[in-house]
Structure formats: structure tokens, C-alpha cells
Amino acid sequence: MAAFDPWSPAFVADPYPAYAELRSRGRVHYYEPTRQWLVPHHADVSALLRDRRLGRTFSHRFTHEEFGRTPPPAAHEPFHTLNDSGMLDLEAPDHTRIRRLVSKAFTPRTVESLVPTVRRLAAGLVAAIKDAGGGDLLAEVAEPLPVAVIAEMLGIPAGDRTLLRPWSADICGMYELNPSEEAAGRAVTASLEFSAYLRKLITERRNSPGSDLISALIAAYEEGDRLSEQEMISTCVLLLNAGHEATVNTTANGWWTLFRHPGQLAALHADHTLLSTAVEELMRYDTPLQMFERWVLDDIEIDGTVIPRGSELALLFGSANRDPERFAHPDTLDLARADNPHVSFGGGIHYCLGAPLARIELAASFGELLRRAPTMRLAAEPEWKPGYVIRGVKELLVEI
User: Fold this and answer.
1) Where are the alpha helices (DSSP H) in 229-306?
2) Beta carbons of 146 and 242 less than 8 angstroms apart
3) Which of 41, 85, 147, 320 sits at a 20 to 30 Å CA gap from 158?
């Protein structure tokens, strides 16, 4: 287990050799520092994402004491109020009800209608960085595109959108393993500020509805679909956080991967029709969300090991996506890979609702950069952010 060290900068920079060791040593491993069971194989991760004996929460069935867990500190309450009412951390029937309402905004027709907007935004961002002769691809293209798209869907005024990314980053700090009290304090502050902002915006939309998602959620609530104001706030925050974090890191990590594989990048430049399979392969090869956690609600058994109720499983997406039992030559980047059932968007009832939109955003940004900046090259080797669960580089400096 020494190879698995999520607080080590060297491990965060390249966790894949450690994953290979975990897979070779078995299907499940107890990791004492986080009190979690690590699951590294693709078949197990895929099955456990759909196993109803597990849950993202246990509060619908047990108290903390009944589940053998210590309640979170009272000082963290604003974060948990916000987080625990979002559908990612809910189970049926609340999850079903909220997802049904929100999914109306992500129908194939609705998502397809966003394509011109996404392409227009991507074109403007790429033109700006090209005119400047380069810059930080993360801050100037990868981040602003998905944030602008989801903010537009929610109806957040353009002048307020600079607030969103810092709030999101601070809230997502609590999803890392054993977050510090300093990180928890930032998450609590961001939760309070973001919630207050959305509460005010919801009040405005009640008085003056628009065609945005917030107005639609209010209308659904008023028609008796029982979406509380807290659920609306938590849903909006989740849509922003989940709606851009993975896309941001797939973009920056993906280009860093392409720069290290010049033959594959050349093939992509030569044939832009590879773009759809390339996006999937970049998500598989260097997974933006490395770990997805689930609680054991009823005893389960994995390869002869009984995992008791009250335990927490850490499903290692990054390892599953490099599993040689599922992927041929998994450590080889193959942008034409056709058989690619990666788990980067999750699975089961918590499968990423925004996956079709994320694919559109990724295709738009990669496509625009390939077309408009074919000579783009790396200006400096990037450093990795310290977070492991949501894994990405601090910046990606390029020259054009």
C-alpha cells in the first residue's frame, strides 16, 4: 500500500504505476489513513456503481451513530446543508424526484440547441489566446468555457460570473481526502456566500421569471413537484461544480497528454474526424475524477472479503480506466480507440447528467484549438494542484 499516497506530489503527478500495483495485489484493499476500501478493477467499479446495497449517503436509512460514524463538526454545517441536499449525494426517492426535474434541462434536443452557443464561446476564447500569442490555456480557455455555458443555462448575469469559479474551487476542496480545517473553513464561507447569492437570485426569478433553468425549477416547485428552496440552491451549485470541474481538467490534462504524445497529436491534426474518439480516450487515459466514494448500506463481499455495513468504498476511476483486463494496451494513448467503456462519467443512478453537454464543450474547445492554433506548443511543464480526487494542473502555459 506504500505506493498509494494521495498526499504525495509525485503520486498525484502520476498515480498509474501505483494503480497497477493495487490491481496486481487484489480486488479490494483497506486503506487505514482514510478508513476506506480501495477498489481498483474496472469490472468491480462498474458493478459497484450500480449496486443498490451502496449509497452516496446513509442518512435516509441510518443516523451517524447507527452507522458507526462521527457526525461532522457543527462549524461545517453550512457546507453540509448545501452539499447534502444536492442530487449527487442523495438516494431515492429524493434523488429520483430532483433528477427528474433537472433532466428536463438536459434532454438531447435541449443540449443540441446549445451547440451554436458553445461553439461561439469557444471560438471567442481561442481567438483571444491566439491573438495574444499564447498564455495559460487553463485560465483562458478551459475554465471560462464551461463556466459560461452553465451560468447561461442557470441565468446568472454575466457580471456576476467571476464569483462562481472561486466559490466552486473552495467548495470542492471538501471533496478531497481528509480535508484540513483551513480547507473546511474556506468551503463553509463559500457555501454561505454562494447560497446567499442564489437565494437572492431565486427571489428575483420568482418575481420576474425568465427562460433559464432557475425559473424552470421554480415553476416546477410551484406546480407541486416539491422542490424546496434549499434543494434549488443545492442543485444550482452542483450543476455549476459538476458542470465544469471535469471539463476544465479534461481540457488542460488532455492537452498536456497530447503534448507528450506528438505522434497522436499529429494524427489528430491530420484527421479532425478523430475528435469524438479522441475526447473519450483523453478522459480515459488521464481521468479528471480519480475517485468516487460510496457508503456500504448492507454487508457486501468482494473476492471473499466481507465489507461490513458502515464502511466506505473508494472506487478508483483512474485505475479502472487503465485496467488491462478491460482495455487493450491501457497505458497506450490511442485516439482512435473504439471500444472505450471508461467510467469517467460514473454509472448507475448517479451517472453524470451533463455528460452530453461536456462532450459538446470538449469537442468545441479542442476543435477550435486544432483549427485556429495548429502550431500551439507547450511553453513550460505544468505543476499539479495538490488535490488528488479532482486532479488537474495548476496552469498550462502555451505559445502560439
Assistant:
1) 229-259, 262-270, 275-285
2) no
3) 85
Q: Based on C-alpha coordinates, what's the Rg of the chain?
A: 21
- Please tell me the class of the 9-399 domain: mainly alpha
Residue 247: Cβ-neighbour burial (10 angstroms; 0-12, 13-18, 19+):
buried
Angle separating helix axes 355-372 and 229-259, nearest 10 degrees: 40
Tell me the C-alpha distance between 254 and 260, whole Å. 10
d(CA 286, CA 277): 14
**What is the signed CA dihedral for 120, 126, 129, 133, rounded to 10 degrees?**
-130
In the numeric block, the cell 447528467 is attached to 353
User: CB-based burial of residue 42 (10 Å sphere; 0-12 exposed, 13-18 middle, 19+ buried)?
Assistant: buried
Amino acid at residue number 151: A
Q: What is the spatial distance between Cα 128 and Cα 287, in angstroms, rounded to a whole number?
A: 28
Q: How does 316-328 read in b/e, with b if 16+ C-beta sit within 10 Å?
A: bbbbbbbbeebbe
List the chain domain ranges.
Answer: 9-399
From first to last of its 400 residues, the chain has per-residue pLDDT tens of 669 999 999 999 999 999 999 999 999 999 999 999 999 999 999 999 999 999 999 999 999 999 999 999 999 999 999 999 999 999 999 999 999 989 888 888 889 999 999 999 999 999 999 999 999 999 999 999 999 999 999 999 999 999 999 999 999 999 999 999 999 999 999 999 999 999 999 999 999 999 999 998 888 876 777 788 999 999 999 999 988 888 999 999 999 999 999 999 999 999 999 999 999 999 999 999 999 999 999 999 999 999 999 999 999 999 999 999 999 999 999 999 999 999 999 999 999 999 999 999 999 999 999 999 999 999 999 999 999 999 999 999 999 9
Quick one: 132 exposed, middle or buried, by C-beta within 10 A (0-12, 13-18, 19+)? Answer: exposed
Length of the chain: 400
The residue whose grid cell reads 507547450 is: 378
